[in-house]
Design goal:
The protein is an alpha+beta fold. The chain is 31% helix and 16% strand. Bound molecules: S-adenosylmethionine. One of its GO terms (biological process) is tRNA methylation.
Amino acid sequence: MGRGGKRGGRGGGRGAKNGGHISGERQSYKRFEDLRRDNDNFRKYYLAQNIVSEDEFPELMESMRTVLPTNFRITGSRQQAIDIREQIMDEFIPFIKETSIDGAEIEPPHPLEWYPNNFGWQFSIPRVALKKSKELSKFHSFLVTETEVGNISRQEAVSMVPPLFLGVQSSHYVLDMCAAPGSKTAQLIEALHSDVEAGQSPTGLVIANDADYKRACMLVHQMNRLNSPNIVVTNHSGERFPNIYRMDAQGMRIPRDVVQFDRILCDVPCSGDGTTRKNVRVWEKWRADDAHSLNPIQSKILQRAAYLLKTGGRLVYSTCSLNPIENEAVVAHVLDHFEGALKLVDVSEQLPALKRRPGLKTWKVMTRDGNLHDEFESIPLDEAGRGRRKYMQKFFPLDQARMEELHIERCMRIYSHLQNTGGFFVAVLEKVAPISVDEKRKAAAEAAALAATVEKIKSGNAAAVDISCLESTAAPATKRLAGESEAGDSDADSVSLKRAKIGSAQISIAGDDGSGDEEEDGDEDQAKRPLYRPDEPREDPALPENPFVFLDASKDDLRAILEYYGIRDTMSRNGFLSRIENGAFRSVYHVSDSVRQLMELAGQRLRVVNTGIRVFSRNSVKGAGCSFRLVCEGVPQLLPHLPDRYVVEASFGDLKTILNEINPLLTALSDECHERLRQVPPSTSVVMVYDPAKHALDTEKPYTRMTAKLSIPCWRGHASLSVHMDKNQLCSLIHRVLGRTVDRNAVGGYRLENNRTAASAEARAALGDGSDAIQADSA
Ligand SMILES: C[S@@+](CC[C@H](N)C(=O)[O-])C[C@H]1O[C@@H](n2cnc3c(N)ncnc32)[C@H](O)[C@@H]1O
């Protein structure tokens, strides 16, 4: 299917039905093998566009008919990613080199030469063949398991390109406008975290948005594997992504001061005709009209993004379509519309190994009768004089001088025969001047303040310099959140707190009004809206789950949890939130200060589908010290703030015992480890930590190279310890530490029965040890 997906849900607006295609015609269903991998109109259309020379065209067409190789990307924290890369090099490449299928040797996977750090990979065997191959089942199982746990992302090579050109840094506010299913969002998050110490939060954030609610939920799954407190998943039509206003010192919205983003990705819905190698049905469904239907929404999304981008910020517009009407036409007309405020960036020096062709400056438009036209006026009128109704001037190129001026050649076209990938289009844009009246006004005020400051410094009156004019307009909210009270601020603080509690609570439709126009939306006073009450019926029945509400760390259950586990103050108390159900919560999530601030500013305007990392979950074990336990995905986030009493060091022998037994008796562990665990009260969560650096000289080591610290959340029962991980994580860990491949499907009820010794099971039964009750985390 094309990458448009279905647009629906609230605000989805017009949708690309039938898997991204507009036709709406029912196709008679043909078997995969019977599909014709050609289309006369497609051939005629693209030959006329001169996307490649006439001589090269057959090669392009031929490559578009072949099945794609398998591609994947190594994800996760840097150290972990290096370990996985080395595992592929040390274990799987030698294994595949020695493997043959029907007597034929197999070319082992190789890194994509243009992807940084050898983290992008290609394997000549197509996905389906890999899945079916008995010989390669071990490698397939590795890819599946590591994908599930989030160490690997199975992603088409060209789809990895757009985020690389955004240059995301840890302080950036990033908006991914059409994000589902989220493979590029994952890259954006990784980039955000890449230059930050483990356990620290970047100061920036990523909003992953999609117009289709169900698809936005796919982002949640992706998010759970990414373990980032800096991500918010939202559900808006990109072209109407709401304005989020800054607040003044009194906690009131500043009507014309909108939060803008440093980086925006517009990976827009498209006809997807660059994906024929993956989606064979594109051949038979292809119609020139699809691009005509998509161009308007693509242009609107890009225009809205331009408003939301900071001056000096960078934006990437991308599609997996080869069609100039979805690509160069959109970029050229939007650039033209903004009269020089947006510019195409020359990225020819970046990723030099990536083979690409320049953007087109001329193209033709195909009408329904199959004729091609160079200009709008050449399309004949029908009898009713309305023949051009379905076509628009903006489907055509601008005049050539203007196209030259805009440097349309700086757009990148990637074709399948260039480096054995799918087809893709990428344009990198920079905002060099403000666009809206408000932005211009604000920029002028800032420039005037700066000039005044410089003047004061020059005149030697430095003491009178007010540096506040140099700070961002977010300063009041930021200061408040940082606890810096301003004179007479107590009321403001209480307003602010109320707003914070509203969080994303009331996600009313009225907030979804970011029209992309310079017009104000008339929603001047957000504070006049009723406050959210958890026990009141929800206002937005389209969202099936209760909204998130920020929790007060000094109250009730949350205070008890933080006290019980002794969570240090280094973990921000502002970031805890939950969904309230019948006045209580089951799980506690944690978000970064940047997300908290954004949600505070956004109030009801943002339809938040999900955010944060789950850190605590309600626990049903009787007699437990705390009614909440630690959650596996939250452990990396909590660990730096957890006191030593809940963190127990494991030797390699202990690690083996834990992974072999899953639920070992405490007596089966080393004396040292046993003694440490005896100091922890029974019926509580603990984290077992194995630090490879401390055991570098040990003779026994993990099966694969391991340099990143392992932290394994466990439940300390009366007599035994049980691992709290989902089965994919467990399988991944067992393979990496013990070298054993465990069939995920055989891991019934997350118990790994085969690994447990009968003796320890009997002993547990005799002791009535409660640890069995909650053996592993559900994913
Ligand atoms: C090409 S896909 C995005 C792929 C995604 N960036 C990735 O790398 O996984 C386009 C997405 O746009 C969404 N979409 C369609 N219309 C939209 C709109 N008006 N605003 C925002 N998203 C939209 C679709 O639901 C679909 O998930």
